[in-house]
Amino acid sequence: MTSNHFSTLFGRELQRLANEIRQYPTPDSIWVRQGAIPNSAGNLAQHLIGNLKTYIGLELGGFPYVRNREAEFADRYLEQADLDRVLEELGQQLTDTFSRLDNARLNEPYRTEVLSIQPDQTVGLVLTHLLAHLSYHTGQVNYHRRLTAY
Asked: What pTM, to 2 d.p., does this model score?
């Protein structure tokens, strides 16, 4: 896989997440927690933003970011319209990062002090993991929306 492939796939998944968030009927409905579902769509979106801004934007792109992972799940700091704007900004940040990411860099080590998936992990492996993580939680948001919004 090339950096262009990663750019395309991350862009597609971020667009899917943004579309899911936009489909909620009210701004408050993205924060509903129901039954055995411990995370709201808003918290999952905040988590994905923090995750990607940290592990791609900051680490690979050099974009400044300070993560508060606990707040991603505990707080409501981005409202529905803010999430839309931040997801768009994040998409541009990732596009910029991938445009500067040489394909040879994908085979270089990704620092385990930042994110440890396995020993001897490469940038490409971590990006694949992060893409799967984004897709997984986007699917959860889709399920949450259909379960709670009607």
From this structure: 0.95
